[in-house]
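User: Can you help me understand a structure? I only have the sequence.
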Amino acid sequence: MRRSSTHRFSALFPPKSYMLASKTVSPTHPPSVFNIFFWEIVVNEANFVRKCIAAESSQDDLWGKLICTNFKISFITHNSIPQQKFQYVHHLLGEHDIPLACVDQVVTVNDAKGKQKVLGSNQKLKFNPTELILYCKDFRIVRFRFDEAGPESAKKVCLAIAHYSQPADPQLLFGFEFAQSRQYGSSGNIIERVNGVDPGGGCQTPLFDRPSDWDREIKRTGASEWRVCSINEGYTVSPSLPEYFVVPASMADLDLKQYACSYTGQRIPMWCWNHSNGSSLVRMSSICDVQQQRKLDQRVSSAITKSHPQRSEVLTSDLDKTLPSIQEVQAALIKLRQSCVIEPFEESEEKWLSSMENSRWTEYVRAFLRHAVEVVYMLEGKRVSVSLQEEEDRDLCCVVASLVQLMLDPHCRSLVGFQALVQKEWVMAGHRFLDRCNHLKKNDKEEAPLFLLFLDCVWQLMNQYPAAFEFTETYLTVLSDSMWIPVFSTFLFNCPQQRAEYSREFVHSKSIPLGNEQALKFPPVWDWSQQFTLKDQTLFNNPLYVGKGATCVQNGTVKTFRRTKQRNYSSTVRGVPSALKNGLRGDVDTLSRRNSLVARLRPDFSQAREVTETPCERFTREWFSRPTDLQGLLLPQLLPTHVTLWRLYFLRWVPEASISQGGAITAFHKLSLLADEIESLQNQLRQYNTSGGVGGTPASTPNPAHPEHGRMYFKCTPSPNRAASTPEYLSSSFPFSPVGNLCRRSILGTPLTKFLNGAKIWLSTETLANETV
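Assistant: Let's start by predicting it. Here is the structure, written out as tokens:
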């Protein structure tokens, strides 16, 4: 089957003639080498390309074909990567594939002429490139050499990659083609959704696109004085709010429609979560009509107060005044990326840690965690409702509202609960994923890694309470990487209304018959079987996690296990002045730029007695003095020594930072073996009891065979002489590999750091674009 390109500039880069009608493989390569999907178009390619592997030597480099499609960049080789003994299987991407949406900048280099150029969409290239460098949003730096490739084919494939990685229109994102093919399937019939999620396996995560999902959440949290509101059906009131959301039961629909005009983006206050004591968490945009502000504040606060059993007051938290701006967060990530992967990995620990601190990334992580703790204190300690306020209610509110629920609600620390939390507070609440991920490369000022910052905050909590979360840091990393695979509705749009609008426009422009359906169905990311095998999905399971409904064996009987409370022995909290306990310092907590860490670790105890302890600090101190209930409230330690760099995410591609058979994965391996052995024994005991071996005639020997599918990735060996040694392929980067994913050799004899000096994002496009090349 052949089809012309959907790209408006298809004449510039015509698709190859071997466009295939279904998921299959290129006829000239083995099946395990190159997969191409339905509606995926091969745009251009170059043969005899060398992929750089090692940082200093080229002897391990791979030779093959570089291919650009309308979805990804593929490198086809028959050689295997040296030193790589493990590779998880990804259904959408091959070993050497890079999604076009993951490409941040495309740089071409000509060694002979001493020139380099950052390629933009539809730009010309006046020299024949000898090298191509791809700077990726997931921190990879991938380099290709064209020493033996034809000059014209090298130039064309570079231009194609630059062009297709910067689409001019949302409908040119591959997700639209993918949704069209997925909705019809191979048989041509429309695939129906089951229980809110497309069939195919994975978790049944509520999408909150129907009233029943919200009703279940209201009942789960006991929010009896709140109701599901449907005034925004068809997005007639607010374009960025979901069609269904929750409001106080005492507020009438007519009043809500009238109030909407006075809020920024017509985003009237929306319920997030209810505490068991009756206090509620609400989010809202700012009131743009100053004349109506006082009256609206009173009416909304009165309605929220009525929903509280004790009619407690409502406290407003203005996030724009208390938290870093999205521009500051973006600037911090750029500096962090410079230190982690751009510059050579520092041998001096002191210099490298200073560079990390100067980026201010971990400082901002602490700031968001600290503010979430303050909101938790209001909800739990003061037992009052809290209204989170932000100008548009689409960025900072998403982070804080999610963290508060994560600390207070153990359901959100389960896999399904966490996915429902992200779906509710980010996707349906209208976080601008399209703009913040900068999928269209239109405006760098709109780009901001708010979701990555949230995941980093989640990892900090996981790092301090490893047994309280059902999922692992591998899951968080893979979830972040999924932002750059442009096929999931979760990360592809700014709001549900935009998804519906763009979908209708695409269907109309392509004259696609959908029957009773009004728009394309984009798959959510939560069905992980779309990306990984069942075996690889077990890497998401935390062997230490014990939920409320977990089972154990006691006196030969399988019973429900409830974790006993554990005392938190933290020497850093006890014996430290109240101003420093848990890192809470109020308004003066912003880190200074010089010797700040040393100053924090040397407090003046003579003046500490004069510092008045705030109610929030007292609440936190008292909580840390009690045993920790992992199925209850969790509060993070917030001293700079407690909030550390998320190594797996930020350093996974750095060869110098990779520890062979070391790192956290070694403990994960041992714990997985133990958890798998316990699960195996429980299964054997169930079989023994079922067969009548207890209280009667002894049954036959239980089947010792290990179940084919278990919760753990690493399986215990049934042999009595099993070896529990750490596998050779494990490293601190597992399941990722830095080999071939971070190559930062000098360019034209100039250190890469100098070449990138002063870059806003990786390279200065403005500077290099003006060069005569």
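Now, to help you interpret it: The longest strand covers residues 42-51. The mean pLDDT is 81. Let me know which part you'd like to focus on.
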